[in-house]
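ok here's the first one, seq then struct tokens
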Amino acid sequence: MGNRLEGRVAIVTGSGRGIGRGVALQLAEEGASVVVNDLGVAVDGSEPSGGPADDVVKEIRDAGGAAVAAYDSVAEYDSAGKIVQVALDNYGQVDILVHLAGILRDRMVFNMTEQEWDGVLQVHLYGAFNMVRNTVPHMMEQRYGRIVIFSSGSGLGSAGQANYAAAKEGQVGFSRALAGELGPYGITVNAVYPGGNTRMADAIPAGSRERYRETARAEFEAKGLPYVDMPDEAGDPLTNAPKAVYLCTEAAGNITGQVIGVSGWPMDLYFARHVVQSINKEGRWTLDELDEVMPLTIGRELPNRAPAEPPRQ
């Protein structure tokens, strides 16, 4: 057991299974007291059970660590406050927040219901706000904190996951804004793109996964970079934990407002959106001018990420 986080108290939402479990175990291994929050639901958010959270708490305690379970939902503000209160009641403080809780309700947007849209945003994006808003007053008072929000590369665009992609990209913007607001109080905020062979990953349609890989491969090749498919063992959810937990340590105090990839073997830094090419003139563009200039400039080598299919017979 290490001591990088000795004396610290961490809340990890969605930590009853998979990637969240690995993060909770790693935090505890480094000396943190951990609030293991999990509803124990199915991938779509149904059938709640306290079992998974209890199992992880037992695992941490059996290894000599300190942990307690919290079963409330992140999707409602007052309920999220109860999770934070568990940390305060048991350990008297909260230093680290890792938000992993999430559900999937995948469907093409033309078939998606309002409930399927709302449900995913409620857990991922509203859940991030609910947990942060209930936590940061305590971090601000002690002028120290580490917040890691688990976003997803699916936020860059994943067919069949409009609700999930919107929530995950929203988390990135949320994290960047928070970094500026909370930095003066000694609080860092980062988003991470995880990956692994989890229940949630298995629930993503194979076609969506393949399209995502094709898009990533095309983007790497467009930048002259090699694209490497990771071996099966790199898909172990536990590979995410050390990199995410590093962002919770004292050593990572200079890293904030970033998006970090933690899937597989590598640890990747993603750049914020920035202008890569521009066309300009004095005055307003006309459509005739754009018809002439765009194919030679900005639109010249843009790949069509979703070309039209021929009509079905």
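and now the second one, same deal
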Amino acid sequence: MTLSFPRKVILYLVEVGIRVLWVIDKITNFSLRDLLSFLKVFFASVTSLIFVLFLVYSYRFDYLKMVAEGLFLSNDSVSNSAFISFPIVVRKIPEPQISAKSALAVDRKTNKVLFEKEPSLKVLPASTVKLMTAAVSLDVYKLDEEVEVSRYCSSIEGTKAMLPEGKVFKVSDLISVMLVGSAGDAACTLATFKISEKDFVGLMNKKAKEIGMELTKFSNPVGLENINGGHYSTAWDLYKLAKYATSISFIKDVVGKNNYIISSVDNSFSTTLMNTNKLLWEVPGTIGVKTGTTENAGEVLVYEYKDGIEDVIIVVMGSKDRFGDTKLILNWINNSYSWN
């Protein structure tokens, strides 16, 4: 049996003590009372030394911290701690064959990779960039601020809510219609009303670095291609963006809405946009997050599924069938892994 270092030290000290007593007994003729007094002092000294060694050992290897966590943390906290290895593989089945160029599925609570296919490949992100547009908008504006739609934004390319030039809307409504209906005119308005579009995109790229999106470049707030040198991202970076964006309660609530009605401040304009993520209707447990599609990017989807203790974020990029690919990955995960 192999002894740990602290135990070896203790045994060594005991052995030394016994030898010292033996030598003293040979040299001197202690009375029983003297011997008991000596033993009392000796063992008190040894005990103190052992206690000091224990404190040093505990500090060095965080033993006391681990004991405290085990005693005082709640069951929920313990289940989320580093001591828990879930989710675990319970069945070995072939991975799904998907059309996406790049894909990633991660357990949100532990950051454990459940499925991957070229997750660091730089791919066009399309309208999933609007998650970052929303996050930066919340830094620039208050939700109840009012902004006016410019001619430039009312005529922008891509999916729109057909917001009329000159109409005034609340920031909360613009963010909502941008995330639910992927409205590019709403994204443009948020990115150009208070500061310049260039400065807004600068804030997007700054925040990307702050949250660890090292392989991402944003060139515009809408997700359009071939603007300001183009843009790119990866499945890994979009996972980080999704995790960050949905940690903001307002965004998390909005991305789960099936539709959104937006009205101008004067109520002279109103329109309803349906959520572009059809899995909200098809897969129970779906809670968001954002779609994206362009001719060059193909189909992109950042998706989150939560059912009980399972909380998974799936990203597919460059797909020919983003919803089909995502369902294949999700079904494979649910058949392969267990969370309890």
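notes on #2: Residues 32-61 form the longest helix (30 residues). The first strand starts at residue 88 and ends at 89.
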